[in-house]
Structure to design on (70 residues):
């Protein structure tokens, strides 16, 4: 199983666990809980990025090049 597949499986497992603990969650409540979980995950250091977080990688990747010109 690839790293991406494992991450997807973890998200689905998290959803299943949330729904098992709170079966009456509305779609908006579930969405808010998942957004929080994904934000937490995106702010965790990732070994594929040499300890940099996915959020930091995205910021560097999408930053305008003018910010880095000398």
């Amino acid at each position: 199983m690839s790293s991406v597949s494992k991450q997807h499986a973890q998200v689905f497992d998290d959803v299943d666990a949330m729904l098992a603990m709170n079966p009456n969650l509305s779609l908006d409540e579930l969405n808010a809980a998942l957004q929080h979980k994904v934000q937490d995950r995106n702010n965790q250091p990732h070994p594929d990025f040499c300890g940099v977080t996915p959020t930091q990688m995205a910021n560097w990747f999408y930053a305008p090049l003018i910010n880095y010109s000398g």
Helices lie at 3-21, 27-42, 54-62. The CA atoms of residues 6 and 12 lie 10 Å apart. The chain has a mean pLDDT of 87.
